[in-house]
Amino acid sequence: MKSIQQYKLSDLTHGLDVAIKGNPDCIVTGVSPIQASHAGHITFLTNASYKKYLKTTDASIVILSEADAIECDKTAVICKNPYYIYAKIAEHFKTNKNKISGIHPSAIIGENCVIDKTANIGAHCVIGNGVNIGAEAQLDASVTIYDNVQIGARVHLSSGVVIGSDGFGFANEKGIWHDVPQLGTVIIGDDVSIGANTVVDRGALENTIIENGAKLDNLIQVAHNVHIGAHTIIAGCVAIAGSTKIGAHCMIGGGTCFAGHITICDKVIITGMTAVTKSITEPGMYSSGIVGAVPNLEFRKNNARFHRLDNLIERVKHLESELKAIKEGDHHE
Amino acid sequence: MKSIQQYKLSDLTHGLDVAIKGNPDCIVTGVSPIQASHAGHITFLTNASYKKYLKTTDASIVILSEADAIECDKTAVICKNPYYIYAKIAEHFKTNKNKISGIHPSAIIGENCVIDKTANIGAHCVIGNGVNIGAEAQLDASVTIYDNVQIGARVHLSSGVVIGSDGFGFANEKGIWHDVPQLGTVIIGDDVSIGANTVVDRGALENTIIENGAKLDNLIQVAHNVHIGAHTIIAGCVAIAGSTKIGAHCMIGGGTCFAGHITICDKVIITGMTAVTKSITEPGMYSSGIVGAVPNLEFRKNNARFHRLDNLIERVKHLESELKAIKEGDHHE
Amino acid sequence: MKSIQQYKLSDLTHGLDVAIKGNPDCIVTGVSPIQASHAGHITFLTNASYKKYLKTTDASIVILSEADAIECDKTAVICKNPYYIYAKIAEHFKTNKNKISGIHPSAIIGENCVIDKTANIGAHCVIGNGVNIGAEAQLDASVTIYDNVQIGARVHLSSGVVIGSDGFGFANEKGIWHDVPQLGTVIIGDDVSIGANTVVDRGALENTIIENGAKLDNLIQVAHNVHIGAHTIIAGCVAIAGSTKIGAHCMIGGGTCFAGHITICDKVIITGMTAVTKSITEPGMYSSGIVGAVPNLEFRKNNARFHRLDNLIERVKHLESELKAIKEGDHHE
What we know:
Mean pLDDT of chain A: 93
Distance between the termini of chain A: 86 Å
Shape of chain A: flat
Oligomer: homotrimer
Low-confidence stretches of chain A: none
């Protein structure tokens, strides 16, 4: 990553809860990853599997924990949460940090909207009627917002996001599906981030709600009436069916699907590609299924064995009864 | 859900096959869910798990079955299909029901299109050449339709829908993938609904077809040459690989994937996150895999046990031969 | 598929490595699939399950292998790679092959872009600042490209594609998620094809890279720092988590998910809906889980049996110890 910015290290760490081992006046010319860094750059160490690069990195400064700092012969920025400190320092190296705010002339804005003057609405966005958008909200290009949606302050919506489309509600009468009107809307709290091409449907009767500080990745499906708690983070390609409630401070792995009408309590971690079919009432880490790619031949054998489980159970039952007969025979002898 | 509309109950049920227990002249000021209703509102009961709210709801009127009506001390709208009756009544409370039709000036329309004058095309839609769009079709903002696609009457396409993109066809010659021209198009019948950011690819040689009354949710992948039967309903994040045919009156759960070149007969129900790898020839409900999130520790144990199944089978075989030897020993003694 | 073009067969095969059995001067009026062809049309046979149509097809000419040609009584175009030869011949029947190139007036182009004059940018595309787009690149309508993305020659991006959105990076400090600046960009090589509504995030520090000739289908999630090797083909709805590297000449089935920070070597085939959680270091075909839809009742039994595996193992252990006791009893007698 090329950059023309340069800073004194002590200016970058000003106000942050860190200790510097080495020269606080050294000049930092960029940020880069530990395994592919450059002289003059600052890097960070958080993932144990990258610790091997600590000795060989070309970076001049490393942000890391007190424990890891013992093995560091570069200038060290020592702190409790290196990834957070890195995030704060890296902000200085953003190239578009002075981006002006405003509404791009190609955006289409509906009637009766209240859009904070510090909000930024990108090219070709379409905003429906009666939409509220808070301070410093950032809608990237080609975001679509339907009528009456409320968007908090500092929300970031990436391109292709759709908020407030009709929920998927149909009533079957004699084999024909009839539209169920979707009369609710979507309420998005402050500091929410939503990734590209993610969809959040409007509620059927109540609203679909995403609470403050929640972070959603790309290509996620949030169905009608879903409630996502504060500071919950959801990775890409997750599908959340209608009326399901996910608590606060949860972490949801990519590709996971949630059944509808279930409730997940606070502080639940779900690993990737899990099928969550029932409510979860205790914090902790949850998973489902058989994961991990194996050679296709082994996979076929596993499938065959799995489908013969019934036969195996029968064989064990048979063994048990035969053994019982032998033992009883012994007793009778 | 706030509303300024209000109606006499008998006006709302006019023409519907219902019986009213209580005052047919009472005034209805809104619709709301049974667990969070308001005085003056009408609600409905269809899901057994919400029956507990029947005694406590603040709603003044409840739409419900004859069986449930026995326990209802409110004004009751008694019918065979409460959800359908609710859908019909709720239509009166839509706030945008008088929406005018027409083509938004920011939409781009190709050459030689035939667009019914009652169709509605939203802001920033892009319509290719030679496209037909039927009466009362509703394209929300930012829908993209490629050349020669045919869209029936009363079709509803949500924002971000893409219809008629090239199918995924490549021929490999000496390690390099070469484009296979996608010469078909997409034919969408009447009364079809397609959710936000869903994609329907054009056919390779034949057409991709979605028959009358089919309902597709958000973020669904419909590959080239797929055929979806009439009145089939498909939940979010389903992927249907090329040339697969799904029958009429099917119900497909969210996150399910279909292999290519298979045929699913009419009236098949597939539960969520199923991997459908072979044709299905009998109506019924089908599923795959191991679902249901369990604590991660249990999940790890399950995975380990699963991968030791082979060992278990060997141990059972060994027990069987030993037991046989013992019994034969008995006989020979 | 209707077409007004017609060609002499020998003109269509000019320059291709084929042998013609029959009349090379016959007139070809269109292309169609073997099971639904027309007199005067050319078709192809590659999939063994369609061989049954060879005798009954109405096509006048069939592209096929030498082995299959023995059973063909039509004019035959005999070659080693019938699907590739078909792809080359079918190009003549594309109706939009003379499409003019250029930038649609409704597209929004940022500052300091370098866009080859032969590139084609569709309606309502949004191109950020500092973007490079190579010769004959084709961006269909409503594609969004963020700042500084580089796109090679002959790249094809379908509608709704988003390239260069922020990677999903947040650092947690005291329960609150903080943005980690995404300072890299996306580099897309030559001859890459990306399907509708697919998203490719920009890198955090390094770049997200898609190498020459890679083909991506619709609704795919490519997270930050991912590296996709040359001539790798990826089917729809695949999710690739951050920093994962997929080698060259791989084939990835639809609905598959990759964990982050893993490496897949060259020439790996992954079947659909696999959960790839670890690196793969040997070429070959890999899969995971239990796939294949079965009747729901059987599925429920399988789930129950699976969760009783532990009990089965205990019963086998018990049998083993009892049998041991019996045998030792025999010895002591």
